Amino acid sequence: MLVLAGIALFLLAVARFHQPGTGFSSLLSIGDILNDSKVAALRQVPHHVYEGSAGYDGAYYVQLALHPALDNPELLKAIDNLPYRARRILLSWVAWAAGLGRPAWIVQAYALLNVASWLVLATLLWRWLAPPSFTGVLRWAGVMFSHGLCMSVSHALVDGPALLLVALGVRALAHGRPVLGGTALALGGLAKETGLLAASGLTFSPRSPRTWLPAAGQALLVLLPLLLWMAYVRVRFGPAEDPGLGNFTLPLAGLAEKFGAIAGDLRGPEPAPLAWTTLAAVLGLVVQAGFFLLRWRPEDRWWRVGATFAGLLLFLSTPVWEGYPGAATRVLLPMTLAFNLLVPAGGRWLPVLIAGNLGVLAAVQEFRPPVEFHTLRADPVLEGSVHAHPGAGWHGPETLDGHRWRWTAGRAELRVRNDSAGEIRLSFRAQAHPVEGERALRVTLGERLLWGGPLAVRGATDVRFGTALPPGESILVFSTDQPAQRKGTDPRALAFRLSDIELGAAP
């Protein structure tokens, strides 16, 4: 029952990312800084764009999915370090096939591949952890709601599906199916090259040298598809400018730097919750690595997989650790899975199991869908005919304690489009706050003044008005009579903010 509740909670969290007109594309983390460099096929598909952001890796991989043969010259401009990113091609192939080659379908397919992988792994893992038990639920949740796996879902990354292939591969090997297991691991390497480290789970005995040569041969076969694909990529584009070697450093140097950064954040006058959840996630990874490095079980294939990734943790450098909590949680997902499968049963191991899964505390932050500072409620007869979106002049949307707002430097637009055949009546309500001191606010539509007056120096000013809008686009302009200011360490020029805008549309 708890597992079913967890799956339902996950699906509800994912559903919040769906938006009318753009579907689940907000999971791709496409930023507006990439607007001028995106491939034409992506520009022609409606998709969510994060303002003031360069986006994240999913924005690059979905463009590979639109051109999975790498035959479009636009990719060179659209994707930074293309030879490096093109190694991870498997999900792009799958999304292209699932979308039947249609760009709009491919974009949605790529956005949801992680969701599908999560559901498959959730089902398989619960079967593997049978019979049901309280600690089984903890182990299941420790993997499925780990920060790394949730981050992979919320940003459409390659780590979640790669983990599924690792899990399937090692499981098949354990059940005496070397061809199926090796194939899954090889595909995992095409999803993300670090997944090939799970080849340490191939069948051999460290104490039996005669098993080493067959295992080495199988390891080469597992590696071969990635080597062939990398050769193809190199022929097309040459060597990668940055092959990723900067992600590694001297043993423990990156981890020590990470703990130093966390300590600095926690010493501040008001440590942010992100600092505490980052500490929890990193401590959880350290506990997992310690479990493998201090509890030697080389005959166990899952132990070998976990120990291999525990060794990887020691060499990770700043680019992998930086952030809150950083990419390390997803890079080390196979270690997290192996840890939860291998921690012994019994009450004395329960504290270790809990400590190793502290990263779950950081996963909550990954399921925050994009927010906007306005809501639009239209009469049923106008459903789908009225749309509103911010125009020029706004800073990015912000949210806290259920309130949503945007700042402006002094002049900003709200664009309302009426696609119906006749005039509509628009109602407007919002809260206005000045950055500091006295200033007035004006709201105009063309030459017509819709609202005007001074803003309260302290507290909010209620802004309300109604107006008729003809068919087509109407632009509401918000402006103030005083220049913008800078407040504290915020680098932005700020004049006033509008929060919790409520728009109503009626015939």
Written overview of the protein:
With 507 residues, this protein is of the alpha+beta class. It folds into two domains: 2-367, no CATH class; 374-506, Jelly Rolls. Helices cover 45% and strands 16% of the residues. Strands 1, 3, 4, 6, 9 and 11 form a six-stranded mixed beta sheet that branches. Strands 2-5-10-7-8 form a five-stranded antiparallel beta sheet, with no helix packed on it. The two termini are 47 Å apart. The mean pLDDT is 92.
Topology at a glance:
Elements: H1 2-15, H2 40-43, H3 58-66, H4 74-78, H5 82-85, H6 90-98, H7 103-128, H8 134-144, H9 147-154, H10 159-174, H11 178-191, H12 212-237, H13 253-266, H14 273-294, H15 301-315, H16 318-321, H17 328-331, H18 333-342, H19 350-356, H20 360-363, E1 374-378, E2 386-390, E3 398-400, E4 403-408, E5 411-418, E6 424-434, E7 440-445, E8 448-454, E9 461-469, E10 472-480, E11 496-506
Helix pairs in contact: 1-7, 3-6, 3-7, 6-7, 7-8, 7-9, 7-10, 8-18, 8-19, 10-11, 11-12, 13-14, 14-15, 15-18
State the gist of this model.
By secondary structure, this protein is α+β, with helices and mostly antiparallel strands. It is built from 20 helices and eleven strands. The protein folds into two domains: 2-367, no CATH class; 374-506, Jelly Rolls.
